[in-house]
Amino acid sequence: MKQRALGFYAVLVYAFLHVPLLVLAVFSFNSSKFTVWKGFSLDWYKAAFHDAGLVEAAVNSLIIATVASLLATIAGTLCAYGLWKRSAPILSNSLYLSLVTPEIVTGISLLALFQWMFRFLKIQLGMHTVILAHIAFTLAYVVIVVMARLRTFDPALEEAAMDLGATEWQAFRQVTLPSILPGVLAAGLLAFTVSIDDYVITSLVAGVDSETLPMVIFQMARRGVSPVVNAISTLIVIALGGLILLSERIQR
Amino acid sequence: MESVLELREVSKHYPTHRAVDGVSLSIERGSLYGLLGPSGCGKTTTLRLIAGFDDPTSGDILLNGSSLVPLKPYQRNVNTVFQSYALFPHMSVRANIEFGLKRKGITDLDARVRRVVDLVQLNGKESRLPAELSGGEKQRVALARSLVLEPEVLLLDEPLSALDPNLRKQVRTELKDVQRRTGITFVIVTHDQEEALSLCDRIAVMHQGKVEQIGTPEDIYLRPRTRFVAEFLGAMNWFNGIGVRPESTRMTRSAAAASSVQAIVESSMFLGHCVQVRARTKEGAVAIAEIPRTGNHFVPGDSVDVSWDHNDQIEVV
Amino acid sequence: MKRLRAIFLAPARTINFVLFLAPMAIVLAYSLLSRGVYGGVERPWTFESYTRLIDPLYGGILLRSFWISVLSTGVCLVLGFPMALFIARSGARRNLYLNLVMLPFWTSFLVRTYAWMFLLRDTGLINTVLQSLGIIHEPLPLLYNDGAVILGLVYGYLPFMILPLYTTLERLDKSLLEASADLGATPFVTLTRIIIPLSAPGIRAGSILVFITCLGAYLTPDLLGGSKTVMIGNVIQNQFTSARDWPFGAAASLALMALVMVMLLVVLRRDKEQML
User: Fold this and answer.
1) Which chains sit next to C, with 3 or more Cβ pairs under 8 A?
2) Smallest CA–CA distance from C215 into chain A, residue
3) 3-state class (DSSP) for residue B204
4) Which pTM does this prediction carry?
5) Which residues from chain A sit within 8 angstroms of residue B72, using beta carbons?
6) Around Cβ C210, how many Cβ atoms within 10 Å?
7) A163 at interface of B, judged by CB pairs closer than 8 A
8) Burial track B48-67 (b if 16+ CB lie within 10 A, e otherwise)
9) Per residue in A192-219, pLDDT tens?
10) How far, in Å, are A195, A226, B131, C117, C124 from residue A220 at the CA level?
11) How far apart are CA B216 and CA C232, in angstroms?
């Protein structure tokens, strides 16, 4: 097959992947609420920012994603390091399994757990249950990204540190961690994007006070297409796209 | 002779093989000691056991008479120069050198660093990162980083193998010079016999986890005790159990010396500094001689007498 | 050394146990209990929820989920293979081209699904344009059918196919292709006899990834399929919310998990390093 023919084909596939999002973005600046171009306006963005429910959901999403990705990154980095030292098949298989488990199954299993816990510990669904759920499903992502970085790390560096008098902890803290830091940051950003975008699991374990942005968008979308949703969607795509590009950069 | 480091019947066994099998060594203070052998002979594992990266299955390792075995790597007054150098990539040359001093809580950092930087001639390069250094410079940083701690014993794992061949001879001289000036005991692991012969005061030749022979370079080259040692240290002709090195082997057209063997020339190759003649004896053994290029000229099919001085013949067990 | 490692593994071990393994065990227990009068579960222990899975209503949904996933996987493979080949042959620009595929993949799945609602619905962009051009007079029923769901799944998971295909194609030794041409093979023969057989591990990995993700899909059938195209994911969700039949939802979840694990094990046994 000629590369030129493939190139032509590739343009079509790229169009398939990118045009729907571009069209969505373009129409978020449409002054009409119908799918006919009537002129440029920022009305829908203003409307989005004046919608108290949306703003509150966005704040919730940011809090949840920040806390969950931070904790998952710490636990996941330590775990990847431990597994790199010596494998632990049960733990790593269990982490991989959690990664391939359909979201809906993860969601209902966590819901079942929380419901079961309510009987004994009088806690309710809310921000904390969402954060716990997000730590659970982002952990494996972090472990995999940090592990990939550790595979390129020369174990002799750690031996050298200990040879020069560093304890195990000092060797990790002063030699290994700085070397794998780009991988850790990238893992954190990935966990953040996966967390902030989640709808399926979140909607099952969220309480009345912990509605997230994807939950609000989902409800609005189900009611029908709205230019306000176009506007928020555009903002989300730009923000998450930016984060992913940043994480790519860091990983180099 | 006072030994600083002693290995007593040290073994490291894995489920599938014995990497080190009953190795005993006694290393003299201030010497340059070589562990020589082919890859997989156990020399690097022996080094790792001394450094503390692996634990021996049995046996004891003594530094100044007390056992190192219960100590962690960071508690041993022994340092390592790694084959890959293992310089910390995110730290400058200076930070790499200071790393060990800081761990030990030593205060006169500046003076110590300056001294060792002078010693290995890294002046002006202190603020560079490892990635900005040449191969030879990296090697010197690795050396400086360990030397600055003034260890009882410095372990060097194939210290020249990552350098390009032109640089090796120069660095070899520098290494020997640094050892003489500091008086620190060096233990060098290498698979290169020329390197071991030219650098070391004493050499232990290892094979399949065991020590085959220990001796001075002259001992092991001229008086190898086993066929393995004889062949590992250089090419060897064998005539009825007697070994003769090609450079001691003579070939003439007529009967000459007392011990002579008849052979037919098979090939002749010009090597620059000499001509290498390959002949086959009546018994079917191969005889290789390196003869001066100004001497006789042989062509395949020539009948020759192969001879040597009695002093040059090697008898092994 | 061992102690530090144990301390490092402890948080992840705890999270994985409490928030993954224990919940799964609870789901298993629920699937074997009976439905409570006001939702929840109660005794006696029974296999009834599992037998109901093959009930024609739910068996039909299972079968439909399976076929939708098979079709989506097939479309992804056909679309993705030439794409992966293109990227693998792009030399220095490979990373850029690969990122162009992956970038939308990492930006909000929900938004990307919503984008298709915006395009496909009766008053959506496609129908509006076609009507204003006079090509059609009544809006075409583009949304809320199996086709829309398959489109959404392909759009969502095409990168899952392209990435492993690209990985194997990129590793393919170029001299093999030259040798094939040198021995008289046309480009088409080289493709079918050399490239495709050698990229089999990538094809298997990509297909399994797409298939299991489609099988567990919830968001896409809900938004693009409406009430007409229901998949297993929607059934499970419904049991835990409005239908309040937790044992049945739990049994359906475990059936889905079992399918996913069987699929993975089949591929894992052949191509260990490809998947991990």
Assistant:
1) A
2) A102
3) strand
4) 0.84
5) 162, 167
6) 27
7) yes
8) bbbbbbbebeebebbbeeee
9) 999 999 999 999 999 888 899 999 999 9
10) 20, 7, 54, 12, 16
11) 78
For residue A2, what are the contacts with CB-CB under 8 A and spacing of at least 6?
C187
Is pLDDT above 50 for B121? yes
- Check pLDDT > 60 for residue B209: yes
Cβ–Cβ under 8 Å, residues A149 and A76: no
Q: How many CB atoms lie within 10 A of CB B291?
A: 20
What average pLDDT does range B241-260 have in this prediction? 77
B131 has a chain A CB within 8 A of its CB: no
Angle at the Cα of C66 (from C64 to C71), degrees rounded to 5?
A: 95
Residue C112, both tokens: 């990307």
Residue linked to tokens 């499903």: A137
Distance of CA B174 to the CA centre of its chain: 15
B304 touches B253 (CB < 8 A)? yes
**In degrees, to the nearest 5, what angle opens at C-alpha C249 toward C-alphas C244 and C253?**
160
User: Hey, what are C125's tokens?
Assistant: 């962009």
Write the single-letter amino acid at A232.
Answer: I
- SS3 per-residue string spanning A58-90: HHHHHHHHHHHHHHHHHHHHHHHHHHHHCCCHH
Do residues C224 and C18 make contact, with C-beta atoms less than 8 angstroms apart? Answer: no
Say how far apart CA A55 and CA A62 lie, in whole Å: 11
**pLDDT tens track for A86-109:** 989 999 999 999 998 999 999 999
Alpha carbon distance C230, C3 (integer Å)? 50
**Residue A45, C-beta contacts closer than 8 angstroms, at least 6 positions apart:** A28, A231, A235
- ∠B224-B229-B233 over CA atoms, to 5°? 95
Instruction: Give the Cα-Cα-Cα angle C230, C216, A194 (nearest 5 degrees).
Output: 120
Residue C20's nearest CA partner among A207, A76, A184, A132 is A132
Q: Indicate the average pLDDT of chain C.
A: 87
Tokens describing residue B42: 């156990």
| Contact across the interface for C246 and A112, Cβ inside 8 Å | yes
CB pair distance less than 8 Å for A170 and B88: no
Tell me which of C125 and C40 has the higher pLDDT: C125
- Rounded-to-integer distance, Cα B244 and Cα B315, Å: 9
Contact B149, B174 (CB under 8 A): no
The percent of residues in chain B predicted with pLDDT above 90, rounded, is 65
- ipTM for this prediction: 0.89
Are B80 and B143 a contacting pair, CB within 8 Å? no
**Main-chain dihedrals φ then ψ at residue B289, nearest 5 degrees:** -125, 140
Strand order in the sheet with B18-28: B18-28, B3-13, B58-63, B66-67
- Subunit contact B103:A165, Cβ cutoff 8 A: yes
